[in-house]
């Protein structure tokens, strides 16, 4: 972990991609034996849509986790963002940009709150983000009885349902956001500082990094990603939905995707590419189990085992590397 | 030093609360947020007077259809022609399910599977995908099912408004779509199957509770969650009934369906008011816990409503409660399969297909309180004639 | 998870107890005054005892969670463990009184076993406890739904339920004394003694600085594993009481892990480990329960409760964190 500064954020990704390829190959075979078709166009489109929603959140989550923090308020940020976007748009294309802008602004504001609570008030990120999540939950429960607002039709037609071949526009958006996050981590000063802060805050501070500013930025970016996921969901659902974030378990699922991708929860190690792999792995498992009509509860057990096993494997590799 | 930092902390929190309530310009009316303890609060924004009137009228309507088979009956049916969907069997029927995440849906789904088994000669394949209570997944699931060559598609939507576009795109594929339980905001499905609905449920329960207690008595309303349309309609109808009866609703509380939380809430209200004269619930899941809270406090159990879950029916019978159990019958899970087969035969079907919604009262309690069934089974499953009864439901 | 809490820690054991209890006691006092204003008879012994009795499960969970948190880890699996235990108990007892005691023994073993697995996976396989116990959460919930086909079956016997539901009636001066209170008294005493024993101090040292502890000859993995076992055991006891109090349901343990962690943090225990007291953690749980009762008494709308809860948690933790950094 101390070598974080010299080690760019690319390290852990191959593992998850090997797992992804293996899972999809075995899944394809089993589904084929079952008489189905895993890579038919509708199934692939569905898989990529599920991946796009979770992926946007998980990319943001990767940034805070690398910085040694985490964000458990994302599920509520997503719900709020769908509502802000859909209500501002009110089904009117003219209000498209204000809707998106306002949703992102609100999300960024929440990220700022999270970041300040963690860095300035020095509340443990777990408690700080759960607390902020509770505040948002109260607001949503109190103000909304169900879906509200209407997403601009232009957004529904493009981001929500448009696709190029089997690849939905939303998945391209995810790739774009992930690419930007990768660039920020690997090529910018902010990225290097973030990895340093996550690796060892004390060392980072001594070497002149302004820890607070870096972490607050990461939190704002994380919430922005969640806000973006909310906008995507609003385009998919056609309206704002006060419970879409919590129903989708985006808080825990995004953290699961991040660690599956090889990012260490303690911070300082990991990267966005792995996270996208983790997201595709989770979505792939979903798709395979859908085709086989496996009980959702069984799937949950399998997920639990996979998450623990994956992180155990990463931990052994880190240990193997650390031992001379 | 310490003080300045504390001030900073408090200041940050204020900022935080500020941005947490950052309202969009077109914020909705905050509904049902009247302070509990001062009555029933504002009316839910889900309340639609016309729907309410229609449902209450349906409560007294005589169903058309075979006697003793309420899942095949319909109230005030308007038939639609389905000749264009006629197709030779055996069929492949697909089902996009909102979730299996509560006992009601479990019992319902078992009933549906049993109905499919009973029709095996005509159904070659039955494909089921569980959306696990996630809108986003269900939209993807429906899209996925459209590529599977289904002859008919049954949808039980997770959320009305948000699933509408997906159901519309399914209709465009040309296969017959049948929606049940929660509806969608479009008339493109061939038919929409559901019982009378939430207004009927809430109204029957509230009339019973207010009619069996002393005038002006204190009612505690226990609800599961805010914002679920089916439950909101139940409460909004109860609110109308309570306002009319002039009872004093001392509290409207959310239990999250958690029995421990329910007992704590009832306990606190007993402490705060001394006695409670009636309990209204929007669902039966925690009815037993509410009754136990009175028993444990050594207080008489006031008039209360539950649902057709067997733990409540058994307790009602054993303790001779003053109770009623309006139902949201699980037999409605049989109807979509029956409807799909009729449509594929080109037979006319009712659209919408309104099913009767029976109520369990003191008179017919003995008929439903079967001591051999598990505590969370729903008595109104209409499943006793299906293959595998009773073991499949145990 | 060793987040942001990595400020230099003293090599010797700090006297951590003094001072750290002040905020929680103050908060508790404020809540008591507020309740007394609105509901004076709440402070009468019978109703206070009944309140204490029904709060016992969460207090037990907070005590168990304390040991895990002070050693620098998390246990997110306790809520699902409680649910699993209650559902398993109902199915195995199946309303048959004679099976009560064997099932109670089985539940305790089950709790210990889950704690053991959590502990060993965390310490030996080096999986962060957040992930271990999150995975365990998914596994337990999935498995118990799978095993019971999605709806709890069977039923709890009256013998089983009396632990959480019944009481010694007509105790002079006190009225009803619930059985749960005896469990609370026993567990609280044991927890306080344990936290002051060599093991308890070792655990704090392990949470404060694992490397230093390791170097001074402590077997870190063993201490942490025992902490997880204690949390599992506490969850088993809580499940027995909670199942007794309210019967079978899949909701039995929902959200209890967050409640327990919140309680522990309210009680002045540092997430990340190394600082705090088990007594504070239990007071934190009591405070949290009192907060909910207060909201009921003041008729705060159900939907707004989470906002109030969130604000109070943030405020309490902010104040104590600012206190500790400025010291």
SS content category of chain A? mainly alpha
Gap from first CA to last CA of chain A: 15 Å
Strand line-up in the sheet with most strands of chain A: 1-2
Largest sheet of chain C: 2 strands, antiparallel
Explained architecture:
The complex is a heterotrimer of chains A (324), B (394) and C (327). Chain A contains 14 helices and two strands. Chain A is an all-alpha fold and 324 residues long. Chain A has a two-stranded antiparallel sheet. Chain B folds into two domains: 71-195 and 330-356, Rossmann fold, CATH 3.40.50; 198-326, Response regulator (Rossmann fold), CATH 3.40.50.2300. Chain B has helices at 2-20, 49-59, 103-118, 135-146, 160-172, 198-211, 229-245, 259-273, 287-296, 310-319, 335-344, 365-368; strands at residues 79-80, 91-97, 123-130, 152-156, 177-180, 191-195, 218-223, 248-254, 278-281, 304-305, 323-326, 349-350, 353-355, 359-360. Chain B has a six-stranded parallel beta sheet, sandwiched between helices. In chain B, helix 4 (135-146) packs parallel to helix 5 and helix 8 (259-273) packs across helix 9 (287-296). The longest helix of chain B is centred in the N-terminal third of the chain and has 19 residues, at 2-20. Chain B is globular and about 65 Å long. Chain C has one domain. The longest helix of chain C has 27 residues, at 220-246. Chain C is globular and about 55 Å long. The interface between A and C is large, with 53 and 54 residues. Chain A: The chain crosses the membrane at residues 48-66, 73-90, 96-116, 123-140, 167-185, 214-235, 255-285, 297-315. Chain A: It is found in: Cell membrane. Chain A: InterPro entries: ABC_transp_permease.
Annotation keywords:
heterotrimer; A: mainly alpha; ABC transporter involved in vitamin B12 uptake, BtuC; two-stranded antiparallel ribbon; C: mainly alpha; 13 helices; 3% strand
